[in-house]
Design a protein that fits this description.
This protein is mostly helical. It has one domain (4-201). It contains 7 helices and no strands. The chain has helices at residues 5-26, 40-67, 70-102, 111-132, 138-150, 152-162, 180-233. Helix 4 (111-132) runs antiparallel to helix 6. The longest helix has 54 residues, at 180-233. The termini are far apart.
């Protein structure tokens, strides 16, 4: 994988640049919203990518609760970290898009907006727990919180099916419509975001593995040093006369 990482990084950079060009230059302008609608090519793929990462975190957390595998725990942690980043992009780009279209930055009481914010808060709490808790059960508690938090993902996604919100009907499978050229560029941007997310997750995974190996080595060194100090402090035995 190390040999393919630079190649994949270059291909991802090219794909991101191509997706940006398609979104800002090639794809036609929306007849109703104008050019501001182009933020959809970052808002929606970021949301889909965050949902996928939280789903992986959910599965990894369940596996960890069953098997207590450290590597699975790292996967869950990494996916939560990168997922929070993409979810933050969603929460930032959403109001930027909403202001000129809806006339407001945020619609209080909107179920999709509120549930997305709750989802972000749950996973930020997950990361805070992982970062600052010193309990021996931190990983278990975090895994349980992740399982609980993942239940909010379907609510966010399907909220516009069952509740009246400011958001329009979904363009895929929900009665909405989109120009095929726009949909193609939307999927290209999502592919680019997925490749970028994979690269970040893989780099973060390797870094976390090295970090835990270093911590384990330091713990063993401290334990060995304490054992030697204790041995040196014992009184020398004397032979009987």
């Amino acid at each position: 994988m190390k040999r393919f990482f630079p190649i994949l990084s270059i291909l991802t950079a090219i794909l991101l640049a191509y997706a940006l060009y398609q979104a800002l230059v090639v794809v036609p302008t929306d007849a109703l919203q104008g050019d501001v609608y182009r933020i959809i090519y970052y808002h929606v793929p970021s949301a889909w990518t965050a949902f996928l990462l939280f789903l992986i975190n959910f599965v990894a957390s369940i596996i960890y609760l069953i098997r207590r595998s450290p590597k699975v725990d790292i996967v869950a942690l990494v996916c939560a970290e990168v997922g929070v980043v993409f979810c933050t992009v969603v929460l930032v780009t959403g109001p930027i898009w909403a202001r000129p279209v809806w006339g407001i930055w945020w619609a209080p009481g909107d179920i999709r907006l509120t549930s997305t914010l709750v989802l972000w808060l749950i996973y930020v709490s997950y990361l805070v727990l992982r970062r600052f808790s010193t309990s021996a059960q931190t990983q278990v508690l975090a895994a349980a919180l992740a399982v609980f938090g993942a239940l909010d993902v379907p609510l966010v996604y399907f909220s516009i099916w069952f509740f009246r919100t400011q958001h329009p009907q979904p363009v895929i499978g929900g009665g909405g419509s989109m120009d095929p050229r726009m949909l193609r560029v939307l999927l290209i941007n999502w592919l680019a975001f997925l490749c970028f997310a994979f690269l970040v997750c893989w780099s973060r995974y390797r870094l976390e593995v090295l970090h835990r190996e270093v911590d384990q080595a330091h713990a063993l060194e401290s334990l060995a040093g304490a054992g030697m100090a204790e041995k040196a402090s014992l009184p020398l035995s004397r032979s009987a006369p």
